[in-house]
Prior knowledge:
The chain is α/β, with parallel strands linked by helices. It folds into two domains: 8-192 and 201-326, Dihydroxyacetone kinase, domain 1 (Rossmann fold); 351-542, Alpha Horseshoe (Serine Threonine Protein Phosphatase 5, Tetratricopeptide repeat), CATH 1.25.40. The chain is built from 18 helices and 13 strands. The strands form two sheets. It has a seven-stranded mixed beta sheet, sandwiched between helices. It is elongated and about 100 Å long. The model is unreliable at 515-519 (pLDDT under 50).
Amino acid sequence: MNYFFNAPDDVVDQGLSSLARIAPIRCSERDSGVRLVIHSGHDNNQVAVLSGGGAGHEPAHAGFVGQGMLTGAIVGDLFASPSVEAVLAAIRQTCGEAGCLLIVKNYTGDRLNFGLAAEKAAREGYQVRSVLVADDISLPEAVQARGLAGTVLVHKIAGYHAAQGADLDTVADAAQHAADNLCSIGIALSSATLPGQDREPRSPELGLGIHNEPGVAEVDPSDAADAVRMVLEPLLAKADARFGDQASFVVLLNNLGGCSTQEIGVLLDECLAQLPRDRVAAIVVPAPLMTSINMHGFSLTLMPADNDILEALRAPVSAVAWPGLRDITTAETFAPSLTDRKPPGGGARDEQRAQWLQVAIAALIDARQELDDLDAKTGDGDTGSTFADGAKAIRQALEDDALSTGDDAMLADEIGDILSLEMGGSSGVLLSILFTATAVALREGATAADALARGADKMQEYGGAQRGDRTLLDALLPAIGALQDSQSLAEVAKAARAGADETAEIAQAGAGRSAYVRDDALSGVIDPGAEAVARVWEALASG
């Protein structure tokens, strides 16, 4: 399976069923032949605000049903307008003497079905008005604009006035004013994939709708900043032509369904960087608002802001999908309190130790690709890169004459500091603990071997791993033991190699990333951290 769906035909109904468990709504019976979502606490003395359309745009429209927003939503099949009968049933369910407002996106199916339902409802004696949303600015002037995510702002503004007890004409006029003052455009790197179908391969496009229609132009943005620029240039040009180049806007950044949280964060930062500060009055919290299933893209909407608009958009609602409006402020920074460190390299120098360091550094840098490949078999494939980064940082310190190679305790401290800052992942922290604790032991008079042993003890204490857990300790601890026994470097390297090779026979890791890997994936594979340690000792022994 590629997606978390059951039967494709059940996707819409299961989505509504899940929403009904957490939102203040009631859903029509599944076997009724229509899909209606109604606010469970609707006051029939207030104007009913209804909207809807095809499914696949979730959380629109059902997620916006609640006090202060929509009274009800009419849901069709995926990318298909609901029927006339469904819209008429929703009107009958919600419309009291105060009347009903229909908010309709400018697509042929929606216009026809909502329009005929409104006429039939009028024939039955209901007071009904309609507002058409056509906020897409990407199409030529000769082509009718489509309704995009700006529709959600119309929902919010109409719902606010209805909740205040305004009459039908006031609610409809406020909604129409909002609809007339919207500019939206979208961009996507991929099309949407309907449940049960394969994704249609398409190039990145600018100016697309929400039903998988092709965009008005193929584009090739180089990065997020370029994508935002491609959207903002035509959007601001249209907005300035309509509202003046001094207008300030409410900004809506809509996730079309496939953007990660991190991508939306970057896109928002770019939007606020590229829009002049005085042009942004407030921003709707970025979220999936009107999606196109899993389309990997976003849309931007601008609406001129005034006090009435801002008041309506800031008002609280019970609808679960409305993310809220926020003011824009200057990002505040502060200077964190960091540890004061003595300038490195303040101790004596020793050429022999500097050469040993160069040998160890070269071994790790040379082994980078092999260690990455080894790690890729059981992890994320970055062990070699991580160790190489640490080695390069130590090499740079040597070249800068910033290491006290003639003072073991100071050298261990300096290496520990470098690794904590420059070597990523848990390995960098663990090795920094090793060298920092070793330095403490050396200052207390321990021999080099015993100091390393105490450093390794601290690694185990804080890291939680022991020998046999399939980590770098499986090579490090035997090597340290050989040093404590006053064995030669060749014997130390032999002990490290034997410990590293033994990890290939450890089928169940007790710590580290390998602890989350299946036993069969570990079989016959040497732990990359242990391999790195073994290679360092082997290089020292041979150098």
